Amino acid sequence: MNKLYSASFTLAGTIIGAGVLGLPYVIGQSGFLIGLFWMIIIGFLTLLVYLMLGEVTLRTKKPHQLPGLAEKYVGRKMKHIIAFLSVSWMYGSLIAYVQGSGELINSVLGIPPFAAKLMFFIPFSIIVYFGVKGVEKTEYLMTPVIIFSTIVLSIAALFYFEPSNILKTEMSNFFAPVGIIMFALAGTSAIPQMKEILWKEKKKLRKSILIGFSIPFFVYIIFTMICIGALGGGNISEVATISLGEQYGTFFLVFGNLFAFFAMATCFVSIGNSLIETYNQDYGINKNTSFLAAILPASIAFLGLSGFTEILSLTGCLFIAPLMVSIVYLFIKTKKKGERNPEYELKIPNWSLWTITLFFVFATALVGWQFLLF
Fold it and tell me: Model's pTM, two decimal places?
C-alpha cells in the first residue's frame, strides 16, 4: 500500500472506534447544530495539536513515542504526567466499553445488566490475557469495516430522516457534547507511528495527518446528523444502534448491534493489550500483574455509577484535554531544543497557542464544575 495512505489509515484507525456510537445521544441533548459547532471548534483545535505533535516528531532524529518525546525535551516528570494521562484515558475507555456492551446485550437479550456485563467482560478479558498475534493491527483492519458499517447504517436511516429534527436546539445543554467529542477524536498515539511509516517520505507527514483526521471527522458528522434526523434528539439511547434497532426493525437490530458489539470488543482487546505492554515493557512489571493492573479497574463498570456516554465524556475532558495541553507545551519546548529541521513548520503565534491551551483547560474545569454540582 502507498505509504501516505498507510500512515493516514493508522491515524484514522486510532481515532475511529466505539466513540461514534455515543455521539448521537449526547449531541442529541443539545441539538445537532450545537453539536456541529463543537465538532468544528474541537476538531480544528485537535487537528492543530496533531500537526504540532507531527512537527515535534520531525524535529527528533530517532523514533520515540509520546512519553519518550516528553522525557527528551521536558524531563522525566513530564514523561510520567503524559504516561498517567494516557493510561487514565485507556482505563476510561475500558470501563466505557464494559458499560456500553452491557447496555447493548441487556437491550437485545433482556439479560440483567450485571450479567450482561459479565458476558462481555470475562471472555474478552481472557482474550486479552492470552493475547492475539497481531492484535495491534485489528484497529487498522477494523477501520474499513467501521467506516463501511457506519455508512450503511446512515444510508438505511436516511429513509426515516426528518429534517426538522436536526434544527431543534437546547441551549441549556450547550456544553454537553464537549467531552465526548474530545474522546471520539482522540488519536495522539498514532502520530509517532506515522512518522516511522513515512521514515523515507517524511515530507508527507502533514498531508497524511490531514487525510487521516478528515476521514473519522466527516464520518462522525454524517452518522450523528442522520441518527438525530431519524430518531429525534430525545429518543436516542446511549448506544445509538440500540435505538435504531428498537424503532426501525430487524436490519438495524441485527446489523447495527453486531457492528456496535464488534467495535467495542475490538477496542477493548486492543486497549487492554496496550495497557499490559505499557506496564510490562515500560515499567518492567511481570505479565500476570500487568494483566491484573490493566483489566481489574474496568470492573468499576459493574457498579453502574455512570452510563456509557457519561464515562466517555468524563474521560475526554479529564484526561484527553490535559494531554492536549501537554502536547502544546512540548511543541513550544521542541521549537527551541529540536535536533533537526522539520519537513514542515507551523507558524502559530503565541496568542493562538494560549487560546488552544485555555480552551482545553476550560474543558477540564467544566467537567470538574459539573461533577461538583451533581
Answer: 0.88
Question: Distance between CA atoms of 32 and 167, rounded to whole angstroms?
Answer: 7
Cα 334 to chain center, whole Å? 26
Of the candidates 101, 103, 138, 106, the residue with the CA atom closest to the CA atom of residue 121 = 101
Structurally, the chain folds into a number of domains equal to 1
Whose CA is closest to 302, among 110, 102, 111, 128? Answer: 102
Residue given cell 523515507 in the structure block: 200
- List all residues 6 or more positions away from 58 whose beta carbon is below 8 Å from its beta carbon: 195, 202, 205, 340, 342, 343, 344
Cα–Cα–Cα angle for 128, 133, 138, nearest 5°?
80
* Alpha carbons 67 and 177: distance in angstroms, whole number: 29
CATH label of the domain that carries residue 74: 1.20.1740.10
Total Cβ atoms within 10 A of residue 57: 23
- Set of cell numbers at residue 102: 452491557
Distance of CA 186 to the CA centre of its chain: 4
Distance, CA of 58 to CA of 195 (rounded, Å): 7
Could you tell me the residue range of the domain that residue 54 belongs to? 3-373
What interhelical angle do 76-109 and 257-277 show, nearest 10?
150
What is the per-residue pLDDT across 125-184, written as a single tens digit (0 to 9) for each? 998 888 655 444 555 566 677 778 888 888 899 989 999 999 999 999 999 899 999 999
Dump pLDDT digits (tens) for 192-231.
888 888 888 889 999 999 999 999 899 899 999 999 999 9
Distance CA 179, CA 202 (A): 32
CB atoms < 10 A from the CB of 302, how many?
A: 16
Residues constituting the chain: 374
Cα 241–chain centre separation: 18
